[in-house]
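[step 3/7] fold_predict: job queued, chain A
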Amino acid sequence: MESGSAAFAGTALAVFGVALLLWTSTRTRLRQPVAEGVHPVAAIALAAGFGLLSVVLGFLLLTPA
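[step 4/7] structure written:
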């Protein structure tokens, strides 16, 4: 059984990661910048990488050990 704080942190990380991935894909599809002053490919790669990392860590916190 997971503790309440681990379940909250896992849910928060997973929701943040999914939202970041959706936001990044929407900005990319509309050909709008993901981050101002950063090369577009680098910005997309970093945002998608951190989004995916957040989703994975969130689900790791939610799964029983």
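[step 5/7] annotate
The chain has one domain: 4-62.
The first helix runs from residue 4 to 29.
exit 0
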